[in-house]
């Protein structure tokens, strides 16, 4: 047997695609703790607090004279910024202001977003993010995330290693070919991954440093962008076929090699043909999730489950008609069929017959099967051809009408009135984004049905009053699902995504709708409760992962809701991130409640893996501008369940806090450090368990 490193993982077989290495928990290599201070601290968005640095913190971190003398609490900073943002009349100006805040004071950005989520969500996400992507080249100031283009083919692993964070848990990636309902925006689609990951942190509690936005640039077919002098991407037509497939395969392989088996890869806004192919190709070998197909399906199914309280009956009692047969439409339809199977036990093929789709050529029927794309064929039922939507409504007589066409104003007055003539309470979901592409507005739906419609949309609409009653439109926003879903995957250490996990997310969201919401015509809970909602969704998703045997973080926590909520709270409120606590003691203003945020972790050039050396360095301490190699100690934390929480707390805190925490941990877990044999056994046991889970 070869002793070459390439062959020793699998045994006589080179680990070309990282399949074996990625199935193991990634070892924590010896780290360096570097303490930022002074001017560099103020230029570090993750650690900068601006005028919220206290007097003690200004002294201990060499900030005297670098800031005006006034001290402003985070609450005052938030109040001032919200006042400034509200002065902007143009949504894109608000978006730009928030992105600039994120680039200079990350903690304040998330504090602002968390406390004002209903007001700011439409700014950092749909609909404003669509306009931001269209004009991304003009407003671009500082890169956020990684840009991987055809120029990097053959070097993608090296490009990933250029990213400063090693512990990445969630990647959101796009190739920019189908941004919302706006079409091919090429490299400028980066606004979507950046916005999505902001919500992973604000709504789900995932650490910002664990999130990585990526744009894969293979060119664009948008002539306007190709001729735009400010366009930031490759100026060439889109690569397709084998060239495209090879680049994406290299990317997927490199991600797994660099970040391991349990990094969640979320596909965003790929064109239909690529979206389905990528999901089918990599769902069995990678932890992948397509928000346009699976996330949209999950949030819409949640709305349908909740609406049954108003409509009556079960899902199996209703007939569904979709306008749009792309990745969103077919994804929703499939999840509805799966949920009906779960409820009734009927074969999924039988359930699909209750669901009809209309594309640009009319109703999808059996006589068109030969010319249909593969993902449309399961929805081709026996029926005579029907060309228009209104005729399809009259022929199929649906109780639920769902729009995913990406084309605005398709639910005309004639269509909506036809739905109203067939149903006492027609459910109309105009899901296309942004607002300009919605199939109809809330006002149109309520007016044309004389206030009888149950309405939901993809982008937000204001409440509407009709005949003295105020209707609150529901928003079938993916932001309800993907932050909690991703958190559940992370909590459980899931290695694959299963359809039952999506169903669990839908059922958890539907359960959050109360009688008070139903009285206002709502089929989704308000976003003001989103962090509680995300924790409940995460708990259900994690529980399902454990039930299916897909979880690798063992044993299963007794209270998953508390664990999920606690993790979100820890990431969002722990010292050094959101909470504006003052130093309480210590000559450096360093205590467990101080939020100096001046310590970061990175890999050193020269490792020191000696346990005794590690212990001496931690106990003796270093100067504020020095460094310390942690070696085996942090390696043991990574692989020792009892100390995982300590490992999480090691990041984003000042040196005094770090030293106190580590010294205390050394006392409590002395045997792990002092007994190399015991430590080796722990690491070997962890590796064996991880391999067994992967093999299973």
From TrEMBL:
Domain Malic enzyme N-terminal per the UniProt entry, residue ranges: 102-283
Annotated Pfam families: malic, Malic_M, tRNA-synt_1b
Lineage top rank: taxon: Eukaryota
Keywords noted in UniProt: Aminoacyl-tRNA synthetase, ATP-binding, Ligase, Metal-binding, Nucleotide-binding, Oxidoreductase, Protein biosynthesis
Cofactor(s) listed: Mg(2+); Mn(2+)
Domain called Malic enzyme NAD-binding: residue spans: 293-546
Family statement drawn from the similarity comment of this UniProt entry: Belongs to the malic enzymes family.
Protein name (record): Malic enzyme
């Amino acid at each position: 047997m070869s002793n070459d490193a390439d062959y020793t993982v699998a045994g006589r077989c080179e680990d070309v695609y990282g399949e074996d290495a990625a199935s193991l928990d990634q070892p924590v290599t010896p780290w360096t703790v570097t303490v930022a201070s002074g001017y560099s601290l103020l230029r570090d968005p993750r650690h900068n607090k601006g005028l919220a640095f206290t007097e003690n913190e200004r002294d201990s971190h060499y900030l005297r004279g670098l800031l005006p003398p006034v001290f402003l609490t985070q609450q005052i900073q938030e109040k001032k910024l919200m006042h400034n943002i509200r002065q902007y009349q143009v949504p894109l100006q608000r978006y730009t202001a928030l992105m600039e805040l994120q680039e200079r004071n990350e903690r304040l950005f998330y504090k602002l977003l968390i406390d004002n989520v209903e007001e700011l969500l439409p700014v950092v996400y749909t609909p404003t993010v669509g306009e931001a992507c269209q004009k991304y080249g003009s407003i671009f100031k500082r890169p956020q995330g990684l840009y991987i283009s055809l120029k990097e083919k053959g070097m993608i692993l090296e490009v990933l290693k250029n990213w400063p964070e090693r512990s990445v848990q969630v990647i959101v990636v796009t190739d920019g070919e189908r941004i919302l309902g706006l079409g091919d925006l090429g490299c400028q689609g980066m606004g979507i991954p950046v916005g999505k990951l902001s919500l992973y942190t604000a709504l789900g509690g995932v650490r910002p440093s664990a999130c990585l936005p990526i744009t894969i640039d293979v060119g664009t077919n948008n002539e306007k962008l190709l001729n735009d002098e400010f366009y930031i991407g490759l100026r060439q037509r889109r690569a397709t076929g084998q060239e495209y497939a090879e680049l994406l395969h290299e990317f997927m392989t490199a991600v797994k090699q660099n970040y391991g088996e349990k990094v969640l890869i979320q596909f965003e806004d790929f064109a239909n043909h690529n979206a389905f192919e990528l999901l089918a190709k990599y769902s069995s070998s990678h932890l992948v999730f397509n928000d346009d197909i699976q996330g949209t399906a999950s949030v819409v199914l949640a709305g349908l489950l909740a609406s049954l309280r108003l409509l009556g009956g079960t899902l199996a009692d209703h007939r569904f008609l979709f306008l749009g047969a792309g990745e969103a439409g077919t994804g929703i339809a499939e999840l509805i069929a799966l949920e009906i199977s779960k409820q009734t036990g009927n074969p999924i093929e039988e359930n699909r017959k209750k669901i009809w789709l209309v594309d640009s050529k009319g109703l999808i029927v059996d006589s068109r099967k030969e010319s249909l794309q593969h993902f449309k064929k399961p929805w081709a039922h026996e029926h005579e051809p029907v060309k228009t939507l209104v005729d399809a409504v009259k022929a199929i007589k649906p109780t639920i009408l769902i729009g995913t066409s990406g084309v605005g104003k398709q639910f005309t007055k004639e269509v909506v009135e036809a739905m109203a003539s067939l149903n006492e309470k027609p459910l109309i979901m105009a899901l296309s984004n942004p607002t300009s592409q919605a199939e109809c507005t809330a006002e149109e739906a309520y007016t044309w049905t004389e206030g009888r419609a149950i309405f939901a949309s993809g982008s937000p609409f204001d409440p509407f009053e009709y005949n003295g009653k105020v209707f609150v439109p529901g928003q079938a926003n993916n932001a309800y699902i993907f932050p909690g879903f991703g958190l559940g995957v992370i909590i459980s250490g899931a290695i694959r995504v299963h359809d039952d996990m999506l169903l669990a997310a839908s059922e958890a969201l539907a359960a959050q709708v109360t009688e008070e919401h139903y009285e206002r015509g709502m089929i989704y809970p308000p976003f003001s409760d989103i962090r509680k909602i995300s924790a409940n969704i995460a708990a259900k998703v994690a529980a399902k992962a454990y039930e299916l045997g897909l979880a690798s973080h063992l044993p299963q926590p007794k209270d998953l809701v508390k664990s999920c909520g606690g993790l979100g709270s820890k990431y969002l409120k722990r010292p050094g991130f959101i909470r504006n606590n003052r130093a309480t003691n210590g000559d450096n203003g360093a205590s467990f409640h101080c939020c100096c945020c001046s310590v970061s972790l990175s890999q050193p050039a020269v490792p020191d893996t000696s346990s005794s050396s590690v212990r001496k360095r931690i106990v003796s301490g270093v100067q504020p501008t020095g460094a310390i190699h942690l070696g085996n100690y942090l390696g043991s934390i990574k692989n020792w369940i009892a100390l995982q929480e300590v490992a999480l707390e090691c990041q984003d805190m000042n040196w005094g806090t770090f030293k106190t925490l580590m010294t205390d941990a050394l006392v409590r877990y002395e045997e792990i450090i002092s007994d190399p044999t015991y430590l080796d056994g722990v690491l070997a046991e962890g590796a064996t368990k991880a391999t067994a889970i992967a093999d299973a």
